[in-house]
């Protein structure tokens, strides 16, 4: 399983670290805007500037090859933002057609990490 991610404040990175402890055989790859991926995978990002897609995330997904290989998007956010909570995932779905899998607050709870892992293992073999 390939998990690509973008993290600025460390929340998404902490979510990924929780998964790494449980799934050491998965591949966790922090993106850079110029990388071109070769394997299908799932994408984790964050919401910035109260409802915006991070610039690096957008540049990464603008590469048509990358966006076609991403099977789901999930975003962290802060519930204090109300309707803008983790809305980057919705904007990515709208712009690139990548389905939203999950929205989680900050670095996610252990239950959210478990739910994420279980969903991927049961729906994307």
Automatic annotation (TrEMBL):
Q: Which InterPro entries does the annotation name?
A: Flavoprotein-like_sf (IPR029039), RNR_NrdI (IPR004465)
* MF annotations from Gene Ontology: FMN binding
Name of this chain's protein: NrdI protein
What species does this protein belong to?
Leptotrichia wadei
């Amino acid at each position: 399983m390939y998990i690509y991610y973008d993290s600025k404040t460390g929340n998404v990175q902490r979510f990924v670290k929780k998964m790494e402890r449980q799934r050491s055989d998965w591949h966790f790859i922090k993106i850079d805007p110029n990388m071109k991926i070769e394997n299908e995978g799932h994408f984790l990002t964050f919401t910035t500037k109260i409802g915006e897609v991070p610039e690096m995330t957008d540049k990464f997904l603008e590469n048509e090859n990358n966006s076609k290989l991403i099977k789901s998007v999930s975003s962290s956010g802060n519930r204090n933002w109300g309707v803008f909570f983790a809305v980057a995932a919705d904007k990515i779905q709208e712009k690139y057609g990548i389905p939203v899998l999950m929205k989680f607050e900050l670095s996610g709870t252990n239950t959210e990490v478990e739910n994420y892992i279980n969903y991927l293992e049961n729906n994307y073999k």
